[in-house]
Design goal:
Blueprint lengths: L2 H9 L16 H10 L10 H24 L5
């Protein structure tokens, strides 16, 4: 899908499909967050505070996963 096709699709109310190919597929929590950001009703979209907290939480989880992968879960 070209960027023009994607923009036209969004204008029609369609959402972009979740990517499942490429070097890193889009994780479910991020795609679900994108869907809420695209809600037609602004009052149903996440606030900037929510987005900041979501990002902070995901970064924390990523650090834990890296520690588990690098040093093993017994050392956490």
């Amino acid at each position: 899908m070209s960027h023009i096709q994607g923009l036209n699709s969004l204008k029609k109310g369609n959402n972009l499909p979740k990517t499942t190919d490429g070097p890193i597929p889009c994780p479910d929590p991020f795609y679900e967050l994108m869907l809420t950001c695209w809600n037609r009703k602004p009052e149903n979209r996440p606030t900037f505070d929510y987005l900041r907290d979501f990002s902070t939480t995901m970064q924390y989880i990523q650090k834990i996963i890296i520690k588990i992968c690098v040093i093993g879960s017994d050392n956490i």
